[in-house]
Amino acid sequence: MPPADRPPRMTPPATHDPLAPDALGQWLAAHPVVVFDLDGTLVDTLPDLTGALDDALAALDLPPVHPDVVMASLHGGLAGTAAAVAEALALDEERAQALCVAYETAYSMAPALRALPFPGVLDCLHALRAAGCALGVCTNKSQSDAEGVLRALRLDFAFDIVVGAGRGLALKPDPAPLLHAIAMLGAHPRESVLVGDSVVDAQCAHAAGAGFAHFSGGYGGAEALAAHALARFGDYGHLGLRAAPMIGTAWAAASGR
């Protein structure tokens, strides 16, 4: 549940223009609940996703595809990417299913081999926790893979709940997983904000009645830039949120990165 000693909330601005960078951190920290997307928002997972796909394609004697195919489809989860690749390669249903299974297997074996948090993420999470925010993750990645990535990168400490695929809920952009996360954290959507990098995240937040903060340093592209956002930033360092000294160094030493 969110801590009781959080600072007073700010009222999100009525304008359609995103908040200025120097106001972003204060705006985020004023919300009782901040929920993050995972891939392309908290963590750069693209190297592991493309590597697992390359392994799956090679195992099935299929040609490689451009990494842009993964980037454009990853917000549909591994199955979404497998379907996009199957369409690009004109695979029949049997081969498409085999690719999906091979991809899921390859990725589950090493979901955080090369993945890294985006710069400034750790400071942001520590600062939001210190401000009294309850934090969650809402992702279309499978529950086990999402928890595995967060655990491997030593980010799991920050989150009160992780909502991934496989919990019997619809995937984003349906609002169900975000509403579930917010409810479990004891808040109302109007008191909450979703931080994400894609139009899928924007649509999910809007459908849920929550605020949306767009991280433009992820994988969302032009479509996400066109989506309405109360806040937009491309660098966590611009939020003005700082962790205690040496936290980043301690994380790097503990994670071996």
> What would CATH call the architecture of the largest domain?
3-Layer(aba) Sandwich
Main sheet summary: 6 strands, parallel
Radius of gyration: 18 Å
How many helix segments?
Answer: 11
**Secondary-structure-derived class:** alpha/beta
Q: Which H/E pattern describes the elements?
A: HEEHHHHEHEHEHEHEHEH
* CATH-assigned homologous superfamily of the largest domain: HAD superfamily/HAD-like
Distance between the termini: 32 Å
Q: Unreliable stretches, pLDDT < 50, 5 or more residues?
A: 1-16, 244-257
CATH level-1 class of the largest domain:
Alpha Beta
Widest sheet: strand ordering: 5-4-1-6-7-8
Q: What is the CATH topology of the largest domain?
A: Rossmann fold
Quote the average pLDDT: 87
Please describe the structure with a list of short key phrases separated by commas or semicolons.
44% helix, Rossmann fold, 257 residues, alpha/beta, two-stranded antiparallel ribbon, disordered C terminus, six-stranded parallel sheet
